[in-house]
């Protein structure tokens, strides 16, 4: 859970999520889910926020059935694919979902 002030404090990161959402051709529900996931666990440092936002967007795309590759999400958020790969599963689990077992 997050506070309303977290949304204000992280407005720039939410805008980055929206830009990446558009690049990846995801819908508004995916953005809403990614925003909720990100704000629920946003770290304090900007470097960590970039990775948390990317992993949240990847997880949201999975949740909403709009899968995109880790590489595509990483490119859209300007992080490494490995960063997304390492962090998306804990985000899903914290939100109460079971990661796919592909």
Structure description:
It contains six helices and no strands. With 102 residues, it is mainly α. The protein is globular, with a radius of gyration of 12 Å. The mean pLDDT is 94.
Short recap of the structure:
It comes from Halorubrum yunnanense. The protein has 102 residues and is mainly α.
Report the total helices. Answer: 6
Structural class: mainly alpha
| Range of helix content | over 70%
Major sheet: none
Unreliable stretches covering 5 or more consecutive residues: none
Q: What's the overall average pLDDT, rounded?
A: 94
Instruction: Give the termini separation.
Output: 29 Å
Order of helix and strand elements from N to C terminus: HHHHHH
Gyration radius, rounded:
12 Å
**Number of DSSP strand runs:** 0
Bin the strand percentage. Answer: under 5%
Mass-distribution shape: globular
Topology overview:
Elements: H1 4-9, H2 11-24, H3 28-40, H4 46-63, H5 70-77, H6 81-94
